[in-house]
Amino acid sequence: MTETRRYRVMHRTRYDYDDVVTSSYGRCHLQPRNLPGQRVLDAEVVIDPEPGDFSSGVDIYGNVDNYFHVRTPHQRLEVTGTSTVDVDPVDQALLESGAATAAWEFARPSGRSGARAVEYQLDLYPPEVTDAVVEYSARVFVPQRPLAEAVVDLTHRIFSDFTYKSGSTEISTKVDTVMKRRQGVCQDFARVAIACLRSQGLAARYVSGYLATDPPPGAERIYGADASHAWAAVWLPGDRWIAFDPTNDVLVGERHVTVGWGRDYEDVAPLRGVIYTESRSSKIDVSVDVAPLPLASEAST
């Protein structure tokens, strides 16, 4: 039986410059969200050098974001987010609800009840919903098919039809390019899924977070060897969402830690900023670790 899991998450980004940086401005999404099915026990973001200004707030999508300004001259900048999170298994009750088992056509946002989801229904600019996307999604979203069933099928099709290849794409790579090459990474597969859903008039959002991975049998965990992850979610009437991970052919559950969501990657980038420097080159090193921890009940036994 699948049960709730607890994790200690660390996401560290280090920039090294070949000349002094006199000022760094940054914005980061590194603190997980409190959600039904996910509880944040503690979370913090540490900047080195210590920033002169630091603030924490909530963006228009409800994600926790942090702003900082480092005024101390530096040649290395390190931003580290750490948190402890409890995550529940897949919500079977949601999958068996009337909204999830009804025909997918009924999940198109409409009226006052769907007002908050309409933004996620719209295509991006430049458009991501191409003829290839429409043709691909039409094989999944046949008339009157139950929504949950169609989502599971879409998840499996992308997993089967596309090849995961690290380094094969960039942040700027468009969905149409991924459709032609049939390869990419997690953010590409999430964006393909989102474009498919939007092509059918459904509301879909891009979700950023982490995936807990287990080492091969007999091997020890390698600290910092994990990575940030991305998946998609589709809206249901009643303002609920089914989140699914086409990279791994699973619905999102106890191995997924949600940090934030938006219409696309740009809304929830882990870290971005502006620097003032004469530096001509820089090096970035990203280290992510999602370490399982015992729950209180397990620790006491």
Automatic annotation (TrEMBL):
- InterPro entries, alphabetized: Bac_transglu_N, Papain-like_cys_pep_sf, Transglutaminase-like
Q: Ranges for the Transglutaminase-like domain?
A: 178-248
| Pfam families per UniProt | Bact_transglu_N, Transglut_core
Q: What is this protein called?
A: Transglutaminase family protein
